[in-house]
Amino acid sequence: MTTLMKILIAYDGSECADIALDDLLRAGLPSKAEAKVVSVAEQVVPFPATFGMVETDFVESLLPEFANLKEQTEFASSKLKVAFPEWKVMTVVGVGSPSSFIINQADEWKPDLVVVGSHGRSAIGRLFLGSVSLKLVHDSPCSVRIARRHAETESDRVKLLLAIDGSRDSEEAAREVVVRQWPIGSEVRLVNATWGYSPALSSSSLQPIAQWMAKEKARIGAMMGRVEEELRAAGFTVTSVVKEGDAKTVLLDEAEAWKADCIFIGSKGTSPIERLMVGSVSSAVATHAPCSVEIVRRPR
Question: Is the pLDDT of residue 152 over 90?
Fold first, then answer.
């Protein structure tokens, strides 16, 4: 029996949350899937710890907005059922820390993807990437899609920017693009930010570093070639870009200039630090991208 994709959608009734629902139509998602819409009322009174993640009549009486959240989740659910009539959609309403509640739901339900708007209702969220979104980028047990508004277009085709840095996580991001269901004529641009060759590396003492750099460039180039073949076989129009520079800057500039609909990027890069925590490149791209961003994380 085929296992259905599971998608957890964080929804707070904000404009950005509605944009996230609309963005699902351009995310290459399957016609059949399971979806869970989660809304959370921030804890505003000191409940005992046992209340933290549960819905109770007592909580509802203390938080009038709790009932409104139920209406919001039902609205989101009905919208999903119109857009994806074959999806099985359920709703959950809770109280507590929104990011903790959502991550707890993800740990328990084990979705393949968590979807969230780029900003929430809070004052801080209106100034920069919402704290909930950023928390999910770092701590979600699965892939995260941060949705942003798309430019108006009459075409169903999408333009996907795929970051390739030679890591296993970037390969996983490429694999995720290949297995999704995209409109005919969609495009993928592979982007690799590489380093320049310094004349100082010509000295004999630094030759091992220069040789390692050359091998890494060749390895990443070979990976890009393999990914390009797989994408073309899947029906995409594919272009590749290799530029010297800081990875964050290269990816963001390319997404802006190419008018990408979404950036797909692995959650971790190739540096020792990035193997220990979510990659700084992923975090920066999620925060500053001009389009939606999907951070692909291999299941724990």
Answer: no
Report the pLDDT value the prediction gives residue 225, as an integer from 0 to 100: 93
Per residue in 250-282, is it b (16+ CB within 10 Å) or e — as a string?
bbbbbbeebebbbbbbbbbbbeeebeeebbebb
Q: In what order do the strands lie in the sheet with 292-296?
A: 88-96, 33-42, 5-10, 113-117, 143-147, 292-296, 262-266, 159-163, 187-194, 237-244
Q: Which residue has the tokens 């003492």?
A: 205
**Nearest Cα residue to 145 out of 38, 268, 8, 244:** 8
Q: What burial class does residue 157 get, using C-beta atoms within 10 Å of its C-beta: 0-12 exposed, 13-18 middle, 19+ buried?
A: middle
Q: In terms of C-beta density within 10 A (0-12 exposed, 13-18 middle, 19 or more buried), how is residue 79 classed?
A: middle
What is the structure's pLDDT at 85?
97
Q: What is the pLDDT of residues 27-54, one digit of tens each?
A: 999 999 999 999 988 765 554 444 444 4
Q: Lowest mean pLDDT: which of 80-94, 102-116, 122-136? A: 122-136
Cβ of 131: how many Cβ atoms within 10 Å?
16
DSSP one-letter code for 36: E
Q: Do 8 and 111 touch, CB atoms closer than 8 A?
A: yes
> 144: which 2 tokens?
């995260």
14 token code pair: 């904000």
